[in-house]
Amino acid sequence: MITTNSGKIYRFVLDHGLGYGFAEVYDFTDDSMFDGRYVFAYDRIDAEAQKEYSITEIRSNLIALGPITLYKFPNVRGVGAWKYLFRTDDFLITERPSYKYLQAATRGNNWTESPWWYKAPCDMKKLPDYVDYEKLRHLETRILNGHPGVATKFTMKYLLDCGKKVSDFYDLSQLAAKNMFVQLINTYYPLGKTIEFLEQLPR
Questions:
Q1: Which of 60, 93, 137, 165 is exposed most, by the fewest CB atoms within 10 A?
Q2: DSSP symbols for 91-142
Q3: Is residue 102 part of a domain?
Q4: 24 located within any domain
Q5: What is the pLDDT of residues 33-75, one digit of tens each?
């Protein structure tokens, strides 16, 4: 892990003007340039931007999302920029996290219906230890995300947790929005909720 680039905390803007969220980024590109960037989003939303922030207050919140794999670090200028706040040496992780992987071409919308899931990384010299999806539900995938996508996924989770329909805010017939939604509900919600939320997809 590149410690000087890890533990960096940012503020980002939610979609639809719903406020501000907070995220913490980690750099394992010394181990993998392809998928060595990770981000956690905190379970905190501020309606308005503040002039000053407390690192203790932000980190006292639970983790809402993550570790999500990034394809690049957040930019701090330009469209979709995140505001860098501060850095901590009190790391959430010090090793690359495990993830779930499906050895199949497609997943479908309800990931429990797909066999051949396994926890990775694993010994590639032998067959993976395939398990029931529910044992891996809580793990993230290795799907690469842009930091604007993290803001969208966090916004979707906020809407669901508030009892609102994501389909009232996003066009879930669009592939990018649909994929983000399906990833979210298959990872951060139990099966019953996932089935309920899948009803929001256009038929």
A1: 60
A2: -S-SSPPPEEEE-SS---SSGGG---EEEES--TTS----B-GGGTTTS---
A3: no
A4: yes
A5: 999 999 999 999 999 999 999 999 999 999 999 999 999 999 9
pTM for the model stands at 0.95
Are 25 and 70 in contact by the 8 Å Cβ rule? The answer is yes
pLDDT at 132 (0 to 100): 94
**Residue bearing tokens 């916004």:** 155
The Cα–Cα gap between 115 and 83 comes to 41
| Exposed/middle/buried for residue 105 (C-beta within 10 Å: 0-12, 13-18, 19+) | exposed
Q: Is residue 148 a part of any domain in this protein?
A: yes
Number of domains in the chain: 1
What pLDDT is stored for residue 80 in this prediction?
86
Domain that holds residue 183: 3-97+140-198
First to last CA, the chain: 44
- DSSP class per residue in 53-105: --HHHHHTSPEEEEEEEESSPPPSSSTTPPEEEEE-SS-S-SSPPPEEEE-SS
